[in-house]
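Supplementary notes for students who missed Thursday's class. We covered one full example, reproduced here. Read the sequence, then the structure, then the short commentary at the end.
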Amino acid sequence: LPAVLSTALGYPLMGIIFAAIAGAAVYIGIPGMFERKGYQDEKPIPLGRALKETLINRSFVTVVIAQTLRFFATGILTTGMMFYMKYSIGADPSWTTISLAAAFITAGLSLWPWRHFIANKFEARTTTMIAYAVTGLSSITLALSHGTVQAILSACFVGVGLAGLILMGDVILADVVDEDDVRTGQRRAGMFFGMSGLIITLSSALVAQVFGWLMPRFGYDSALAVQPATVDAGFRLFMSVPSVIGCGLAIFVLSFYPLYGKRLKEIKQKLTERKVQQT
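Structure (token representation):
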């Protein structure tokens, strides 16, 4: 869609339209962001202490770094797809929409198999690491594709891995909320999900930095009407290597994530016991 709109309307008008839609969506959702009175039984933790408790939480830090790397990897794919289709595959930029749609449709169709065959058999940590591995490996196929059909099939492979990341993103963070609940006696889901949403926006800056550093080295210049032939290799590299690195680093970071095995079972048991006592 962005490729089609930018061609028909230009980037400035497209940006204004998307900004207006995003702003309207945010303000429409504001009324539903307030907590109902009486829902929080305990006295809230002061903001300063709440921020400190969140940012020094080892489980949260490892998850949010991995999540940032997730959005870095997927941001590379969405940012570079139009250039990749045009300069590496030689297709019309409008095929960008089709390739991204294929990836997200595949992701939607893959959610049930991920849940049934993988997530139900492994803990959140293991399932998430598998999803990163699949996403990273599948992005390599983009560098090897020649032709529109191969590129779309590669996007579908990426969608399979993306499904696992979508499925487990909130699940693994919910385990962090449970751990904090056991330790502090407060259900601070809003703080953890809010801080996660804030921190992962750094991924967009990382994508921009990689693009700005890498592509000029292959001769890409947005001011040129015709790009040199070397940009073909540049965009193939851009679409694959950073995503592989991002997913690999995410797996490495998650190896330090403490909520698995015995520790996770203890937290679940304590929460179950507390619910029984409250009833």
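Commentary. The first helix runs from residue 2 to 9. Residues 2-11+45-222+235-278 form a domain with the Growth Hormone; Chain: A; fold (CATH 1.20.1250.20). If anything here is unclear, bring it to office hours.
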